[in-house]
Structure formats: C-alpha cells, structure tokens
Amino acid sequence: MAANPAYDPALDAPAEKQPLATRLMYLVRKQPLGAAGAFIVLIMVLSAIFAPVLSPYDPTANDFAAMAEAPSGAHWLGTDQFGRDLLTRIVFGARTALVVGFASALVGGIIGLVLGVASAYFGGRFDLLFQRVMDVFMAFPLIIMALAVVSIFGTGVQNVIIAITIPFIPRCARVVRSSALALREIPYIDAARACGYSHTRIILRHMVPNVMAPFLIMITAFVGQAILLEASLSYLGLGVQEPTPAWGLMLQGGAEEYAESAPWIAIFPGLAITLAVFGFNLFGDAVRDVLDPKLRSQ
Amino acid sequence: MYQYVLKRLLLLFPTLLGAAVLVFFLMRLIPGDVCELRMAGTGAYFDKEALKICQDELGLNRPILVQFWEFIRGYATFNFGDSMYTGRPIVEEIVLRFQLSLQVAIMATITAILIAIPLGTISAIKQNTWIDYGVRAFSIAGIAMPSFWLGILIILGLLITTKSWFGAAWMPPIQYRPLWEDPVYNLTMLIWPAVATGYRYSAVATRMTRSAMLEVLREDYVRTARAKGLLEKIIIRRHALKNSLLPVVTVIGIEFAFLMGGLVVTEQVFNLNGLGKLFVESVTNFDYNMTQALVMLVVAVFVLTNFVVDVLYGWLDPRIHYR
C-alpha cells in the first residue's frame, strides 16, 4: 500500500470526520472525468429546477418579430423559426429530459431488479421461461417497441416514459440476475430460508440489497440512454409534442430546413443532448469504478 | 460442440415465436388500421361499405386468433405475404431496400473498427495520461451524441464547406445506385450516414478494446515477453493486441445486431430509402404484414449474430468450451 503514490492515509479515517471540501477534492483528483460528469449533471439539474428564474423569456411564446435570429445580447443562443428564445427552450428542455430520464431509468430499473432477482431466486423452470421472455424483449428492436407503444397510447411525456421503460426492464433484469445467481448459493440465503421467511421477504430484504452495485451502475447508464432515446423519439415526431420544449423536438422542425441560414437552431439543442448524456455517462463510469472493486484497478 | 450449436439454433424458434406474438398483438393494439387510414386519412367522407370491403379483402375482419394462425402458418411455409399498404410482395419490398441498409451497416462497421482498435490500444498503453482521458472523452462523446444530430452536423458542414470552396452548396445524392454500377456516386452518398452511425458504434468498441487491452497487459505472458526483452511494439502487436481482440469481436458483433435500430434515425436524417425508413413507415401505415416481417427479420439477425459471435469466440479462444 505504501508503495502506491496515490495512497492517502487520511482516507482510512472515518469519512465523516473530513471536511466536505477535502473529500470532494479527493474525488476530483481520483476521478477527474467522473467529477466533470457530476458537474455537468449538477448544472443540468439546477437549470431544470430554476428554469423560470434563469430566463426572462417564455419557452412557448412565439415572437414573429424575431424569427430565426442569430445569437445576440438579447438572445444568447439565437431564436428558432418561431422566434422562441433557444436558450430558454434548452433550459426548459432540461426538465423534460430529466423527468423522462429519471422516471424511465428508475421504473425500468426497479422492475428489472425485482424480476431479475426473483428469476435467480426461484431458478428452475420459472428462470428458464423468464429468460426466454427476456430474450424476446432483448432481440426486439428498441425503437420499434417505442414506436408501437407511442402509437398505442398516443404521444406525450408519460407515454414516452412508458415506451422507454419497457426495453430497460429486460436489460436490467439480465444483469441483476447474473449477480443474484451467485448470491443464491451463499449460506445466509439458506439461513433465511431455514428461518421460514417468505419468498418476498428473502428477495426484497436479503437479496435485493446485495445486488445494489450492478443495479446502480445500470441506473446511471440508463438515465443517459433514456435522454438519448427521448431525443430520438421526439426527433422522429413520436415523442414529446409541441409546444413542450424538448431537445429532440427542437431538432425536428426547423433544424434541417434552416440548416444553412440559421445553423444555431440545429447546433445548440444537439449540443445540449450530447453534453447531458456525456455528463451522465462520465458520472456513471465513475460510479462503476467506485462500486465495482473488480474494475477499480483499471 | 455440435450439441451446443444445435441447441443454440433450436433456441431461435422460441425467440422468433415470442417476437411473433409480441409484434402481432402490439400492432393490433394500435387504434385504427390500414383501410381506415387509406379512406379516412384524408378527412374526407367515405363509405362504410367500402371500408368493410377493404377490411374483408385484407382479412382484417377475421377472428384475431385465425389471423395469428395464418401469420405463423405463412412463415412456417416461407410465405411472407403481401404488404397491406402497397399490395406488393413483402420479399420484393424488403430486397429493394436491404442492399442499401446492409451497405451502410457494413461501412459503419468498418468505420467503427478503423477508429476503435487504434484508439482503444493507445488509450490502454497510455493509461491515465491526457491521451487516455482524451480518447475516453472522445469515445463517451460518441455514445452521448445522437447519431441524427451528428448527421445534421455533417450535412451542415458539407453545405458550408462546399459553398465556401466551390461557390455552390453540394448535398449527397438521394437516389440510390448500387456500388458496382457507380462506385463514386454510391460512396459519396453513403459514406456520410456510415460515418454518423459508425462513430457511435466505434465508441462502444473503443471502450471495449481499451479495457480488454488493459486486462491483457497484466497477464503473465506479457510480463514474460517483457522479461525476455522483446520490443514493446512487438509485445503490443503480437502478444497483447491479438488476445485483447476477442471481446472486441463480441462487441462488434452484438452492436452489428443493434445497428438496425440506429439506422431508423440515420436514414431519416439523410433521407435514405432503407429498411429503417420502411420500418417506421410500416408502423405508421398500419402495414401489419410488413412490420411483422421486418421484426422477424431483425430478431432472426439478432439471434443469429449472437450465435455466430459465441461460436466465433470459442473458435478464436481455444480455452473456451461449449457444452
């Protein structure tokens, strides 16, 4: 240990004794990319919460006197083809992205978690059948699933969330199941069974907490993917509908038509999507490095 | 080994059947059908009788289980039916577009490999330096960037550069011509969507190359190679890279199976008439037969690619045995 130059003996002390700033600095040094990701995520969350305070404009108000204006002092990132302020729409769009991202990642992740652990716990025929069902969902093209769900329920934020949640379930279930399989053989599960606890209790109280590491890794990855999927669906006209500000939607209408005369309409919303997903991915990678000891050395 | 291959191939059938059930009922849950779309889609007055005749003709009024049985029976006898929207045979419609999508997919794969393997290797060798951080940021950006936005940026870049260099804005052609008929035309058309899809694709492969390389560099045989004084270049190329490519092959294979979904959006941006576009159109047109055929095709390709990757893996790495 002493040979390791990055080793800091202060870290062996109980974590809460150190001032927050020191711990933060340590994280920044150890995981520079992860810290950058966390920073982006933080900015995004803050701007989503304080969107109305941050911007003097209404995200849905058309201003035909200022159509497709170039970035200026009044409109920092310019305006779109309806004269709406792009920065305002991007800031409000963060709300849509975060709501969809977190809701579908959490719902899909939790359902997948419970199903995956249950599948590993019960094993046998149930597991086999469950695996085949998951195979089908995995092989089913994600975008077509989303397309079908949106066509059935109609467009709108809730339905986009449903559409994105469904394909997440098997992906999470599969990963969680493989960690839970190893868990099933550990004596404390036998002990819990010998105590006569119900299946529900063993699954929820004894197994689920022990697969939290892969679960959290999946969830952070899902948020970024969900934001990207929402953008793709909205871009295809199947997601969030006008006039709700959403990044993918902003790229759909004028972006291609005005590509030459007003490139900012196409550039900034895409940049927002990229930056947001980038942030979540960096953050997710750091979470994985911290939570998964096998990968930590890399 | 043969038993394993057989078992895997047999698993194709339950998966296909499951996908068939899923797509069949999912499509029929969508309110409306192709006849209503054709007649009422314009908002004009239409005859209820005509609607019924149209539905009878396409067999949409039969009990749902009978329709499902017909669908499965048709596939079991390789009779895929006609498109409900255009009335032309499904196979004909798909073959028409398959060429284009397959070419984009292959070109995207080549782009991805050309980016991923050198970058991933350098990143691993220079671990935790700024080069490594740069490559990692570049590859995460590839995952983060929506491919349709990259497509828009490419079009935008082409417009602006051609305008400033040649005075006239140039856009990639839209009409498809096969590679062997007009290679220059074909490549100038398809290289852009291939790059837009390939960059994203490369991101996953770069990360995989990096982590596999890091793992291999820790192996005993690499230490042995270093101890006997081999040049680092040779160690990397002959000992490490060769062995670290195994998981990369897997990732490239699996991602290839997922390419189909990515193509849906890319084809939209570049206005390509490929399978992805056909897919979206078939769902919005209530063309049940076409959607079913495309889903079955994609699922079959997905399962088979996974299978080929697994077999390839065992073949490339003799330590792995399948039972």
Structure, described:
- The complex is a heterodimer of chains A (298) and B (323).
- By secondary structure, chain A is mostly helical.
- Chain A is built from 14 helices and no strands.
- The longest helix of chain A has 37 residues, at 86-122.
- The radius of gyration of chain B is 24 Å and the shape is globular.
- Chain B contains 12 helices and no strands.
- In chain B, α5 (90-125) runs antiparallel to α6 and α10 runs antiparallel to α12 (288-316).
- Chain B has helices spanning 2-29, 34-40, 48-58, 64-76, 90-125, 130-144, 147-166, 183-217, 220-227, 232-270, 275-284, 288-316.
- In chain B, 78% of the residues lie in helices and 0% in strands.
- Chain B has 323 residues and is an all-alpha fold.
- At the A-B interface, α5, α6, α10 and α13 of A face α1, α6, α7, α8 and α10 of B.
Quote the beta fraction of chain A.
under 5%
CATH class of chain A: Mainly Alpha
Helix percentage of chain B: over 70%
Largest sheet of chain B: none
| CATH topology grouping of chain B | MetI-like fold
Give the overall average pLDDT of chain B.
Answer: 83
Q: Sheet bearing the most strands of chain A, described?
A: none
The portion of residues forming beta strands of chain B comes to: under 5%
CATH hierarchy class name of chain B: Mainly Alpha
Oligomer: heterodimer
Number of domains of chain B: 1
Q: What is the correct CATH architecture of chain A?
A: Orthogonal Bundle
